[in-house]
Amino acid sequence: MNFVFLGDSLMQQNDMSTFPQTGWPSKFNEFVRSEKEILFKNFAKNGRSTKSFIDEGLFDAALSVTKKGDIAFISFGHNDEKKEDETRYTDSKTSYVNNLKFMYDKIKEKGADVIFLTSITRLKYQDEKLLRTHLDYPDEMKKLALRLDAKCIDLEKITYDELKPYEYFYNSKYYMVLPKGRYDNYMEGLVDNTHLNNLGAVWISFLVYKELKKDDKYKDLLI
Questions:
Q1: DSSP per-residue string spanning 47-77
Q2: Could you tell me if 180 and 188 are in contact, meaning their C-beta atoms sit under 8 angstroms apart?
Q3: CA-to-CA distance for 23 and 201, rounded, in angstroms?
C-alpha cells in the first residue's frame, strides 16, 4: 500500500539545504504500523497550488504511482489564494474546487481512497489575536468533501483552535521562526510564520494521526 501526498510546502520532503524546514509527512511514518509495509510517495512541492500542481505535471506523476487500495492525502490552499499570481491563483468557489474534484475523480478511478486536508493556520497575529488568513478556501474544501462523501481533516480549524489560547512567542516553536546564528542555512535568522520546523511537523503528524485514529476505516493502519 502507498500513502501518496499531493500538496504544497507544508507537506513537501525537504533536504538539508532548507533544514530545519520540515514537511509533516516525513514525520507521519512514526505513527504508522511498521508491519503494514506502507510506502510514502510524496509529490508535494513548495509553492504549488491546485492549478500549478496540475499544470506542471506533478499530479500526473502522483497519479502514475497510485494504485488500488492506496490512500492519497490532498492539501492545497496556501498558494491558491495568491491573486497576484496567475500561474497559481484559483477562485475558491470555482477553479479551486474544480481542481480538487478533478484530482479526486482521477484517483478514485484508480481504486484509491482520498483524504482532503484543509491548510494549516498561519502564525499571524493582530492586536495579540491569532488571525484566520485562508479566506473561504477551507470551507470550500469541506463542502466539496461533503458532496463527495470524502474524508476531510480540517487542519485549519484544528491548528487554529490549538494555537489560539497562546501568544505568538509560545506558538512560534512550531514554525520557521529562527534566531540568528543557530542554523547554517539561516545564519541571519528567519521569521517565517507559514512553514513548519521539525517540531511543527511532528505536531501536525500527531494531529492527523488523532483524526484518523477515530475512523474505523483507517485506525488499524496506525499505532
A1: T--HHHHHHTTHHHHHHHH--TT-EEEEE--
A2: yes
A3: 6
What digits encode the pLDDT tens for the residues 57-92?
Answer: 999 999 999 999 999 999 999 999 999 999 999 999
Q: Which residues contact 187 (CB under 8 A, 6 or more apart)?
A: 180, 181
Q: Is the peptide bond prior to 20 cis by the omega test (within 30 degrees of 0)? A: yes
In a 13 Å sphere around the CA of 12, the CA atoms on its Cβ side amount to 18
pTM: 0.97
CA angle 131, 134, 137 (to 5 degrees): 150
Interatomic CA distance for residues 38 and 127, integer angstroms = 45
Cα–Cα distance measured from residue 44 to residue 10, given in angstroms and rounded to the nearest whole number: 8
Per DSSP, helices labelled H in the chain are 25-28, 50-55, 58-65, 95-109, 137-148, 155-163, 168-171, 198-213
Is the distance from CB of 97 to CB of 50 less than 8 angstroms? no
Q: 160: helix, coil or strand?
A: helix
Would you tell me how many other CB atoms lie within 10 Å of the CB of residue 144? Answer: 18
Residues 6 or more apart in contact with residue 157 via CB below 8 angstroms: 118, 138
- For 153-185, write each residue's pLDDT tens digit: 999 999 999 999 999 999 999 999 999 999 999
Residue-level length of the chain: 223
DSSP-assigned beta bridge partners for residue 2: 39
DSSP structure class, residue 108: H
Q: In the numeric block, which cell numbers belong to residue 207? A: 494531529
